TrEMBL record:
One of its GO terms (molecular function) is beta-galactosidase activity. It comes from Priestia iocasae. Keywords: Glycosidase, Hydrolase. The keyword 4Fe-4S does not apply. PROSITE patterns: GLYCOSYL_HYDROL_F35 (PS01182). InterPro entries: B-gal_1-like (IPR026283), BetaGal1-like_ABD1 (IPR048912), BetaGal_gal-bd (IPR048913), Galactose-bd-like_sf (IPR008979), GH (IPR017853), Gly_Hdrlase_35_cat (IPR031330), Glyco_hydro_35_CS (IPR019801), Glycoside_Hdrlase_35 (IPR001944). Belongs to the glycosyl hydrolase 35 family. This is Beta-galactosidase. Residues 364-474 form the Beta-galactosidase 1-like first all-beta domain. Its EC number is 3.2.1.23.
Amino acid sequence: MLQVRDNHFLLNNESFQLLSGALHYFRIVPEYWEDRLLKMKACGLNTVETYVPWNVHEPKKGEFQFDGLADLEAFIQKAEKLGMYVIVRPSPYICAEWEFGGLPGWLLKEKDIELRCSHPSYLKHIEDYYDVLIPKIVPHLSTNGGPIIAVQIENEYGGYGNDAHYMSFMKEALVSRGIDVLLFTSDGPDMIKSGSLPDVLTTLNFGSRSGEAFQTLEAFKPNSPRLCAEFWIGWFDHWGGEHHTRDGEDAARVLDDMLKVGASVNFYMFHGGTNFGFYNGANHYEMYSPTITSYDYDALLTESGDMTDKYNKVKEVMSRYVELPELDIPKIPKKAYGTVELQEQVSLFDTLSLISEKVTHAYPLAMEQLNQNFGFTLYKTTVAFQGTVELDITPIRDRAFIYVNGMYQQTIYRNDQEKMVSLQLNQEENVIELLVENMGRVNYGKHLKDAKGIIGPLWINNQYVFEWDMYPIELHTLPTTFHVGTDERYPRFYRGTLEVDELADTFIELKGWTKGNVFVNGFNLGRYWSVGPQETLYVPGPLLNKGTNEVIVLELEGNETNIITFTDTPKLGK
């Protein structure tokens, strides 16, 4: 059992330096968990840390999933088998550049709910979730003979709020359900006052200036163990931005500074993985900035698990303080399968009856009101206006394609400075359609409460327009019939096949395509967008089958080719 005595850790009554790395089971196909954990162990680490995302495990209220990428217990058991300790961070909120910071979108169906505070409805939802989640964790606690040595209460709460009653509730929610290992909170050095509890271990998150950070901790809680719970060795990327990197020498130097004073550390991230599907989050400061599909993070391992120069530099520092094990880690092959022509295609508008069910309502409903978490919603109404009319796009989240009488008009985005757009209506009755894309709910800060779709009535031609048909499109179901219908509009689905004789990791390059998602054998690899910095999508080998593999591309905006390329080399920024 991990304990705190004076200013250091004891494990089973012996002095213990916690050397950990963050690795998120839900961002890595299960077949590769062992590979990533072995590379962590080979670097001299004794512990793996993971978040637990609520929205993965309870995608619909009362409906739980704990298999595949969501098999938390299997991941814990894999770490135990390899002789590693585990830190679990099951806070209802995880941030992690993950969609809605791990909170389930259905929370926002309750329009008056307040998040991460003592709002009764929010607390009740947490209790319902923890009644299912925590019993899956308790058997694996070190006090029960398992590998879990510490559990986090809440995540960077000092950067969000100051509800001390809520923090106490979160602690009791764990303890009352049998969590009896070391509990902790984690915050930036300047945020620990609001994010900590008096009788709980306070840990720090930072990327540099470790001496100053630990001095702040000492002043706040004298004789606390020095633990950097998130040592930021890289950073994440936004669509349309640059690819962030951090010099390996610099990261290794800061690590050495911490280890030589006996501090404990958790690398964030040791290995980032991938925001598969629609699970990328977003930041919103001056403007809304969605995170890319790759969570490479410029970590010690690349998105596809390769050891980097930074890994080697960190490993060299680690070798000065711990004995490194000699481990045989089989190399995962990569292969360039070449080009695939996607010969079949169909407009999304011709597949609505197959991939969605119509909902009719007096006014537009947000995605959450439609019991929809991710993807797209088509909103459709008929108006009797004629001539040039103005549409207020303020309530539209996040990106939308506007059509009038079946003809594309323009694309709007929530970052657009101009909130009024002009539409030309030429008939006595005109059909207006808006296909709205949820590009990822905000995962941090004051804009966390980020509903999607059309979040309020639409003001058109100086009045609110009522009577709407809506089609939620989460793409759990993909079209099976192509060459149907006559609609030429985007978005369009394209389908082809990849023949594979040897399974290997690969990367899809989409030169000549603009924006959308790629599905391999029904698995949503994530978003692509020509604005960069990400230029390829990672395809882990276990997603492929020997023989024929179905590839479907949903192109939202327009493409110059129907060919995609499977390459053995990722492209992520310059």
